[in-house]
Design goal:
The chain is mainly β and 250 residues long. Helix content is 8%, strand content 50%. The longest helix is centred in the C-terminal third of the chain and has 12 residues. The model has no long low-confidence stretch (mean pLDDT 90).
Length: 250
């Protein structure tokens, strides 16, 4: 439930395959709880019978104190959605306030989602609660790239609580709760401020060339994670290429 000081913005994207070979159906919806709220606007770039490419475009500055961003993504059985972002997101100094960012993804049997996320920067003074929940049916495939940057260049980090919950047919694959504030970042990350991650769920990705920073999860799936002082030091390009190829069946 939103408080009276929060500016809620909910974005929904749903992709369903075409039964007759025409273009797949892409339904989008943006709901604002306040006219001043800034939302993520889904822009359809391309679609064919079973595949859609959608860009998530912010319609203003994100994130500011009081912003409550909610994104719901559904990919129905047999369809594929590729999500891209035109640029990174900056959580700005909130001067004692806070903001939230929540994502709920539901993938049907045989559905595919690739999401090439851009850096999420937590500037000094920001306070963000960020939650990502992914619910996959059996046979669904996922490739997800994320980069968390704690503080802008030569700036102290803000605070973020980042929670991730991934299940396949109700079975936990990855459950993580990572609270990071300036003190915790220094202790947990050893002074480094960039956390890059690539998550692959589905057929095991190719091993060659991407064994570094790789963690094979007990319940299936593969996570690559790399730390760095700068974004280029935490780059996971080869891992993302392998995860993407595995998800789309290349």
């Amino acid at each position: 439930m939103l408080t009276s000081t929060e500016r809620g913005a909910r974005t929904r994207v749903r992709v369903s395959p075409s039964p007759d070979g025409a273009r797949c159906r892409v339904r989008t919806e943006v709901t604002l709880s306040d006219p001043s709220a800034t939302s993520l606007r889904p822009v359809l770039v391309h679609h064919d019978a079973r595949q859609a490419l959608v860009s998530l475009v912010p319609e203003g500055a994100l994130l500011l104190a009081g912003d409550a961003i909610s994104l719901e993504v559904s990919v129905d059985a047999g369809a594929r959605l590729d999500l891209v972002e035109p640029g990174g997101t900056v959580a700005f100094d909130m001067r004692g306030g806070s903001a939230s960012w929540s994502v709920l993804v539901t993938l049907g049997p045989g559905a595919v989602l690739t999401w090439a996320g851009e850096p999420f920067v937590v500037a000094a003074g920001a306070d963000v609660d960020r939650t990502t929940v992914l619910r996959l049916a059996d046979g669904a495939r996922l490739a997800l790239r994320e980069t968390l940057v704690l503080g802008r260049h030569r700036e102290a980090p803000g605070s973020i609580r980042q929670r991730t919950d991934v299940t396949v047919a109700g079975r936990p694959v990855l459950v993580e709760d990572l609270p990071l504030n300036p003190a915790a970042a220094a202790g947990l990350l050893g002074g480094r401020r960039v956390v890059s991650s690539v998550l692959s769920v589905g057929p095991p990705p190719a091993v060659a060339g991407v064994t570094e920073y790789r963690f094979d999860l007990d319940a299936g799936g593969t996570l690559w994670r790399r730390l760095g002082a700068q974004a280029h030091e935490a780059e996971l390009g080869a891992a993302w290429a392998a995860a993407h190829a595995s998800a789309v069946g290349q």
